[in-house]
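During the no-cost extension, the postdoctoral fellow (Dr. R.K.) reprocessed legacy sequence entries with the updated structure-token encoder. One reprocessed record is reproduced below for audit purposes.
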Amino acid sequence: MQFKCQDNLDIDAYRTFNGSFNKRVIFTLGYNGLFSELLTQCAAMTYAANNGYKFELDACNTGFVGKNGFEQIWQPCFPMSTNPFYRRFNKQGLKNKLKRSLQNSVLTINSDVLHPDVLSNAIINDDFYRHKFTVPGSNKPQRIVHALNYFLCLILQCLKTQIKENIETQINQLQLPSHYIAMHIRRGDKLTIRSDMTRLYKPEEYFEQLPENKRTTKDIYIFSDDFHAIEEMATHYPDVNWVHREQTHQTGYKNIEYLKLPQAIKIRRTIKLISDFYICSNSQYFVGPYSSNFTRAVGIYRLNKEISNIDVEIEPLSWQLN
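Re-encoded structure tokens follow.
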């Protein structure tokens, strides 16, 4: 399989569309993981596009790539905000009266407010997910997952050329076959902070999520934050050709520890994570937990096709297609 990053959206059309509004949404990326932040950015872009706001991004100090690291990876197709006033104004805890005074022209929101698990505020709520949206270049209203898909693809398309080439090289070096399955096993802090949404699954439970006609596939790419999980799968299914790029010292992702890493390591890991995302997204079938924002992003990218959620009790409104 020869992988190539897709560039099939009209970025100039989005720039023209986004620049046609006078009111502004200034969205501040925060300190959560990469795909948690990117999905909330997609939600903010969806809200802006469908409510007459120009979208602007404040990525001056993000957790996943550090201070001013965003533009080392992306060539944004939207204005970047660097005004510290709006960053301070965006922080939670400011008086609502002060917030309302600027919302006529500038709406400032951050990733904590727009996280997919937050359904109790004026922007992201049940009505937001049930609403139908239009995206630039299309006049047909569609479900939220289609709008999120458009903006996620747009963000990925804005990766710098050298970053795309790096990702393509990483993936093509694996020499994956044209037909393979991908699995994502998320452990680390997710098992403690999201114990209400997920748990430690047995290897056979992942295989039970596969359709019957996929269970004989011998090539499986496995992406996990815990090397022990990969060893468990290989022990239970020794006849499978398990492909992975994880290190033996990995014992589970913990965001609080990741935030302390040097910026160069964060950037390198972010690029690898995006390449893992592409590998999983281009598989013939994918199994993962919706409690993980990585799996949610793969689901949005694939429009929820050929994918199984092992967290069977979790079914966010954003995944509903009909």
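The radius of gyration is 20 Å. Residues 178-319 form a domain with the Rossmann fold fold (CATH 3.40.50.11350). The remaining legacy entries will be reprocessed before the final report is submitted.
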